[in-house]
């Protein structure tokens, strides 16, 4: 486990650097967010509906925009993230916007060691599970933190998208669909500001849909649905085209770009 801890520490250092860049980026548009614009996308809004009065745990929340967006909608929220700087900014935004969300800095796999309460909803989205070497402890933690009858919802980039290396605006199939071996990537810039001179050093893992589904079932959750979509709400892959709906698609779409899954603790 010592080796995996080192992976997490490298990732933490990278995400700490990203916070300053992302909070100034057009993608995150913090000025509009502070004025009341939600950071949530149509998928999660449609899936979770009216959250007023519900308790919600947001896993891997970055600097808390989605957590605070759910809080604005009336949910009692707790956000968790690995990044000290992310949690620090999230707490500042929470105070500035006079909301009542709470934030905890920890490895998402250790959430149950830091949070004992259970929730009506556990939520995670867009670029989260690829940072985890094994989804079984992740799913076990989700089941531990859910109330009986509670909802788990994930919307995430499709595992096929992570089979490719995206370099200089080109994509090359390089990795296995469900790869146990760690993938190390080092590059300049971030998805929210590709012109940044920051060097990202990242360790990640690829997880196929069967691994996602089976880990949740094994943890005691009942799968309500799995949907796949040929579009992304974020312009984070090369040569995407914006559609009339405001989503992004590839010029020659051959595979889904995102999936969503909803499950219930039984």
UniProtKB/TrEMBL annotation:
Q: Which CDD domains match?
A: AdoMet_MTases (cd02440)
Domain named Methyltransferase type is located at 58-154
Q: Which domain of life is it from?
A: Bacteria
Leader sequence segment: none
- Protein keywords: Methyltransferase, Transferase
Q: From the UniProt record, which GO molecular function terms apply?
A: S-adenosylmethionine-dependent methyltransferase activity
Biological process terms from the Gene Ontology for this record are:
methylation
Q: Please report a single Pfam family linked to this protein.
A: Methyltransf_11
**Protein name as annotated:** Methyltransferase family protein
């Amino acid at each position: 486990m010592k080796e995996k801890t080192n992976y997490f520490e490298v990732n933490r250092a990278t995400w700490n650097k990203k916070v300053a860049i992302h909070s100034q980026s057009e993608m995150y548009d913090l000025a509009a967010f502070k004025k009341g614009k939600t950071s949530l996308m149509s998928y999660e809004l449609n899936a979770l509906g009216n959250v007023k009065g519900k308790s919600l745990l947001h896993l891997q929340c970055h600097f808390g925009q989605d957590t605070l967006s759910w809080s604005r909608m009336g949910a009692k929220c707790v956000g968790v993230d690995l990044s000290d700087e992310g949690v620090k900014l999230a707490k500042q935004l929470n105070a500035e916007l006079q909301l009542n969300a709470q934030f905890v800095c920890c490895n998402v796999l250790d959430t149950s060691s830091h949070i004992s309460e259970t929730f009506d909803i556990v939520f995670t989205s867009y670029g989260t599970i690829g940072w985890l070497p094994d989804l079984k402890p992740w799913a076990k933690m989700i089941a531990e933190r859910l109330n009986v009858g509670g909802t788990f919802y994930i919307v995430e980039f499709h595992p096929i998208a992570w089979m490719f290396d995206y370099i200089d605006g080109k994509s090359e199939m390089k990795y296995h669909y469900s790869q146990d071996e760690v993938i190390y990537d080092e590059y300049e810039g971030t998805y929210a500001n590709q012109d940044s001179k920051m060097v990202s050093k990242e360790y990640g893992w690829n997880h196929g849909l069967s691994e996602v589904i089976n880990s949740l079932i094994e943890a005691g959750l009942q799968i309500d649905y799995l949907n796949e979509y040929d579009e992304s709400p974020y312009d984070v892959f090369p040569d995407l085209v914006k559609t009339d709906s405001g989503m992004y698609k590839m010029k020659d779409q051959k595979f889904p770009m995102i999936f969503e899954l909803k499950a219930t603790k039984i």
